[in-house]
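Summary for the funding panel

The consortium committed to producing paired sequence-structure records for every protein in the target list. Below we show the first two records in order, beginning with the earlier of the two.
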Amino acid sequence: MRLRYMVLFLIHFARDLQACTGSSSGNNTTDHQQVYNPKGPLVMCKFLPKEFIECEEPIDHKGNKTAKEETGFGCVKFGGSRYEDVEKTKVSCTVLPNIECYGPRTFTRDGVPCIKYSDHYFTTTLLYSILLGFLGMDRFCLGQTGTAVGKLLTLGGVGVWWIFDVILLVIGSLQPEDGSNWNPYV
């Protein structure tokens, strides 16, 4: 009697093992041959959020519109503080390992903003502008060396330039010289 239960258990265990590994002899279809089921558990790979994919950086054409037209993607200019001002492009993305999804694991994603970040932090620059703006530290921090030296020699334009730069920073008119956006990770 115990032997019968043991044999039944082993047969049941072997069937479960075949179902888990997908090595059943009756079903020879692969994932690529199956039709996508939108009500199923798998999401299309191209619809995964950015936490589950790794995308290439946008190509910088450095103002060359002809190169962008030839390739069909890339950025002519980077940056912009308003959504409408930021150029968008296509990039190639790959799904991270061990993430299950349906469809090709490498695809192009459209609508990626042409934004680059450098080591410019808004809060740090604002503090420099308030505390040491009369010496031109805020302009030095932003990479605007010429105006920073002028601000240093005039002691912030006798205070007028100093206050004016604080206002320009707060309203968003004073940006880093290299065209990058403020680093969002403080």
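The next record, for a separate protein in the list, is shown here:
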Amino acid sequence: MTGYPTYYESFDYKQMLQDYPLGDEFTSRFSSMNRTELKALQNERFLNVVKRAWEIPFYQRIWRNAGVKPEDIKSLDDITKLPLISKTDIMDSVEKFPPIGDFHGLDDIPAENRPPIVFHTTSGTTGTPQPLIFGPKSREIQSLLVARSYRFMGLKPATTVQSCYGHGMINGGHYIREAVTHYTNALFLSAGTGLETRSVQQVNLMKTFGTNVLVGFVDYIKRLSDVAREEGLTPGEDIKIDMIIGHLGMESRENIAKAWGGPELFDWYGVGDTGTIAAEGPDHEGMHVWEDAHYLEVLDADTNTPVPDGEIGNMVVTCLYKDDVYPIIRFNTCDLTEVIPTENKMSLPFKRIKGFMGRSDNMVKLRGINIYPQGVGPMLDEDAAFLGEFICKAVRDENGRDEMIIMVEVNIDASQRPQLQAEYERLLKRKIGIAVQVELVSEGELTPLTQVDVRQKPIRLIDNRFSE
């Protein structure tokens, strides 16, 4: 006989809604809160998360190896005594304790008492996918924070939202569907990527069901505007999009808005492990950090020391709500941003950031797929013609579309290269998940670019997308 709780029985759902408000209740609660009151709230939640983390072998091991004892952490002010963690630590846990590691805290819960979990993985672009494990409480708060973001931006009641986020084992599409269906009253079209719902069908869905909000990665959303025109549909007339909510980063908002007939664009930021961290508001002056749910540090990428507001550093995140499954404390996203130093004009106590400004470890997000240049070489190792030297070039064409060109040194004659080039492009599309271009060159030709002869770590990425 089993006695484990059902999903919503495993936590106090009404208390969660009270603790993490959205809509008008959110505005009312936080517009009257000052930074001192916010810090007190953060401190209380931080200590709860740390208490839970000390029960988990993963944190016990890492913190004790760093010389930290439970009594060392008395308040949020002591957070710098704790070491940073990263995806590397999570994957090390998975390797030592397969298949899902020991970072989540499920192992100390008897099977008959274990709560339901939500399980996803990362895309696994460069090898073994990273497990993503969510308890019911933290999963619902993550979803709620997405909906808080959308409603804060101005999502209208009973609108029609079409999502271009992917499904399968990855988290994105499922997470957004839960957010919209649980915490808004929108009609939600879970179209997914172009592989899941053909682009032609996507634009016809918009026309048929009156989609007026598009959410997803903006490079694909931009492509859909071209498909609409190819189908004889005029964005802004036949398909009237009011809002586009995507991951804009350094993208050209003017081009995207023009392509869709002038909708309002909104940016937001989060990673799979942490959920939504910050979102742009109707003020369009950066992204507001949901500091009731996250404690965000911006640290120098080399020294891991705080940088002044207005300077670029790595985003290091502590989730203040994850005191059930997989606590996240000082997680180094390796994503770069800067804190906006001016006052929050929306009368909120929260910091604002500029949003995603690149990766400190050279990860490239291309059309919604994370590409790690260092991992491209191993994808080609199985072919005897590959000499081991390569470099990735991210470029932006005249239409604003991002492309990846992978230059590869090979040991075959020029007459044989067209066939091998096609084989490599097929191989990389299968392993990476999107099409890339391949250029084959002879041995030594890439040395001036990779600087393999003078650098301990060769250059594997040249990102020309944002060059003047």
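Regarding this second record: The chain is about 30% helix and 20% strand. The longest helix spans residues 35-53.
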